[in-house]
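Ticket opened by: R.M.
Priority: normal
Category: complex prediction / small molecule

The reporter submitted a protein together with iron/sulfur cluster and asked that the result be attached to this ticket for the collaborator who will pick it up next week. Submitted input follows.
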Amino acid sequence: MNIILKNLTTEELCNQIKPLGGSLYLARKIQTAALCHNDMLKHGPGISGRVLVRVRESCVLPQLKMLDRIESSKDRFVRYVFEGESKGAIEAVRIPLLHRHDDYKYVVCVSSQIGCPMGCAFCFTGKMGFVRNLSPWEIVDQVVQIAGDSQYPVKGVVFMGMGEPMLNYDAVMKAAGILCEPCGMAISSKAITISTSGIVPGIKRFIEDKKKYRLIVSLTSANPAIRLKLMPVEKKWSTDLLMESLREYHKNTNERIILSWTLISGVNTGIIDAKELAMITKGLPVKIDLIDVNDPEGKFNPPSNEELNFFRDALRRELAMPVSRRYSGGADIKAGCGMLASHFQN
Ligand code: SF4
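Result attached by the on-call engineer:
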């Protein structure tokens, strides 16, 4: 029997090692060794050596191979390139949160797929096309290895790397659950963010499953014709269907809806864009996250400061809801939003 560590919650691991004489206590110790130290448990107080040998013989501790690690000299973002079960690069980014002296920490942006089938026009990962889904351990190990390479703790995980998380729903939710295990990485469920380009069935499942993670939806335009040009997801799951599912999400969770908006100069930063957004979100508590587009090809450009301020003011006026600008760092090392895998295009 092969028990794949980093692929199981503590409860699942416990159920698998019980027939071998294992217990919940042992499962917790094995999880701590695997997730916090990237190692097999060697011994421990109150653990029978004979049972541990039997359990260890059945366990495998899979590891991603780190192919590259590139650190930005500008903002200390780090881009990691890994290889997993089969060929294909898996990219992840370590985001430093070093502004509070007494609370230095990192957030890790993980990939859920290699490539992405969604084809968003402003994203290089989309241009790669879809290669394959990642398994739970391949997602978990991005965080485990980055935490092992870090001076300060990893306190948050965002599923905003390569891939559309809702199209690899089971593996993503399993990985998120493992990352929350108190005897492992102990990441708070509220510090795990699942991002989607608007896969409506995924959002509905997320509601039904009562997942406690933060949800961010990439909207980028409230005008279906513009959105369709930028995000082909609009063809299958229209803005109307998406907003209907988000109203349902709010009704069930009472959570504010976080909408991310990739800012593209001259495309989605006008007064009409703000008015259209106000119209479709009427009565719904939302927060708008503005992110500069990162297009290494130069087809799409971020707005100037003047254009950004104009749009931000227009949003605040029209929506009367919080609007913030999210810093998309690591552009110099191709770690910015939408840039992962862009180095393959050179
Ligand atoms: S923005 Fe996200 S969903 Fe769209 S192509 Fe890129 S990785 Fe896929």
